[in-house]
């Protein structure tokens, strides 16, 4: 079976426009793909056009695109130039498949759905991956921390990972030296399952015997948003942090300084209210751990966790309000009022067709008060169901 037979027309079209598989080799400007932001703009335009999906672009010329999508001639030319390399792209995909690497675009089954659900347009157009895609559909707990973690952090990580594995959840890591690899290796040694989002050198990882064995055993799935042979860059390392958080049901911050990837990743997560973070506490934790707890004392997504605690992380996350229940309405000092208690009930009655006057009578409030609550409620962004689902949109 060839790559063209294994990949859908839609996914191949997306790769033609977003992947650097060809351009990386040729440096031919006709094969230079869209940037992430360019693709998001074009995809939005396409979704709202008569074309609907990227697969409709194969038989279109510049005049079609200029007329139907109102593209400039240069942009129409770029799209047409990229689309004509389907055969060459298929050959490159075939080579990757020979190494055990598959590619999943945003609508494919092996694209991590929680990442897409939470990041939306921030999610990459595709991931390179290796391993069993079924691992991506299991509940997981993330682990992040310093590369130069101290013995106390290492021992804490191993102990908590073993408990998470015993309770049937997968581990999410970034595959980097320190806490990431400690959590990954401990989970695999203990018979657990791991999803690892790496920032570079996927091809090189596959040369390691222990990595290949874990993949063959169905215990390890590795994903990368950059080319499998890409070398380390700080930008890519920082970029993959959000995949660790959003793929997890919650992420354990084992050790963080006040600078660096762990610190930036944790704050990015809290800024976007993606998932709860469990922050390790003890007398000797790094300054970043203490700062996270101090800065977010009124944030329900920040959970202190004692270094000596034997509490179940899995059960703790089940009892913690999910990101979808907190999105846009974290309780801070200035927001400690009744709005957050009454708004869900008001919203439910609005959906049932109650009028403003009926709501005032039902809740025994003045119209002005109801209007204020309605104004605040209308500013809250829509939330998304947290249950697993099969994504049907292709891009």
UniProtKB/TrEMBL annotation:
InterPro entries for this protein: DprA (IPR003488), DrpA_SLOG (IPR057666)
Domain (Smf/DprA SLOG) ranges: 103-297
Source organism superkingdom: Bacteria
Family named by the database record: Belongs to the DprA/Smf family.
Cross-referenced PANTHER family: PROTEIN SMF
Protein name: Smf/DprA SLOG domain-containing protein
Species annotation: Neobacillus rhizosphaerae
């Amino acid at each position: 079976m060839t790559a063209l037979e294994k990949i859908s027309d839609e996914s191949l079209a997306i790769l033609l426009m977003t992947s650097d598989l060809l351009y990386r080799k040729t440096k031919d400007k006709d094969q230079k793909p869209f940037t992430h932001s360019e693709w998001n703009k074009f995809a939005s335009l396409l979704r709202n056009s008569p074309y609907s999906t990227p697969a409709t672009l194969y038989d279109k010329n510049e005049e079609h695109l200029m007329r139907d999508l109102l593209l400039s001639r240069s942009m129409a030319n770029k799209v047409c130039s990229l689309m004509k390399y389907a055969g060459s792209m298929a050959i490159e995909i075939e080579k990757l498949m020979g190494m055990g690497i598959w590619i999943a675009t945003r609508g494919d089954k092996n694209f991590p759905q929680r990442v897409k659900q939470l990041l939306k347009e921030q999610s990459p157009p595709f991931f390179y991956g290796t391993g069993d895609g079924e691992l991506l559909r299991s509940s997981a707990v993330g682990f992040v921390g310093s590369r130069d973690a101290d013995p106390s952090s290492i021992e804490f990580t191993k102990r908590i990972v073993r408990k998470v594995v015993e309770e049937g959840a997968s581990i999410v890591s970034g595959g980097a030296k320190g806490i990431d690899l400690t959590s990954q290796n401990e989970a695999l040694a203990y018979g657990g399952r791991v999803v690892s989002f790496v920032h570079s050198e996927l091809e090189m990882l596959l040369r390691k015997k222990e990595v290949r064995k874990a993949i063959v055993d169905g215990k390890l799935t590795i994903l990368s948003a950059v080319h499998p042979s890409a070398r380390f860059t700080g930008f890519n390392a920082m970029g993959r942090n959000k995949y660790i958080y959003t793929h997890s049901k919650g992420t354990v911050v084992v050790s963080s300084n006040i600078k660096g990837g762990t610190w930036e990743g944790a704050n990015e997560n809290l800024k976007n209210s993606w998932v709860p973070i469990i922050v390790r506490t003890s007398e000797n934790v790094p300054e970043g751990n203490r700062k996270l707890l101090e800065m977010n004392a009124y944030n329900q997504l920040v959970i202190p966790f004692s270094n000596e605690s034997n509490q179940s992380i899995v059960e703790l996350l089940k009892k913690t309000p999910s990101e979808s229940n907190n999105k846009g309405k974290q309780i801070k000092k200035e927001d400690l009022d009744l709005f957050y208690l009454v708004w869900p009930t008001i919203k439910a009655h609005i959906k049932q067709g109650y009028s403003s006057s009926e709501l005032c009578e039902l809740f025994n409030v003045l119209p002005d008060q109801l209007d204020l609550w309605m104004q605040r409620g209308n500013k809250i962004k829509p939330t998304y169901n947290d249950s697993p689902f099969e994504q049907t949109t292709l891009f």
